[in-house]
Design brief:
The protein is an alpha/beta fold and 98 residues long. The chain is built from three helices and five strands; from the N terminus they run E-H-H-E-E-E-H-E. A three-stranded parallel beta sheet has the order 1-4-5. Strand 4, helix 3 and strand 5 form a beta-alpha-beta unit. Helix 1 runs parallel beside helix 3.
Amino acid sequence: MPQEIINIQVGQAGNQVGSAFWETILGEHGLDFSGAYQGNDPQQLARVGVYFSAVEHGGQVRHVPRSVQLDLEAGVCNSVGTKTLAYCPSLIPEHLLR
């Protein structure tokens, strides 16, 4: 049975912890910050679909995190979003709810 997880990050602490979470998950699955697979172990891709959606872009498969970042103060999402998008451009900017 396939399992999919949508990550929802709320508030300043939630968004900061979530940023660190995605950095770790990318590494565990052998993905670079653009969402492209750079690993060397097929097990890394065995369950990549739990946290990521595969999208073909420019003839290459990219893995996009299923995540929504939410904060009532736009400055929090802007600062976390800027940092997160800088190291993880595979995140979708429209998923930063301000």
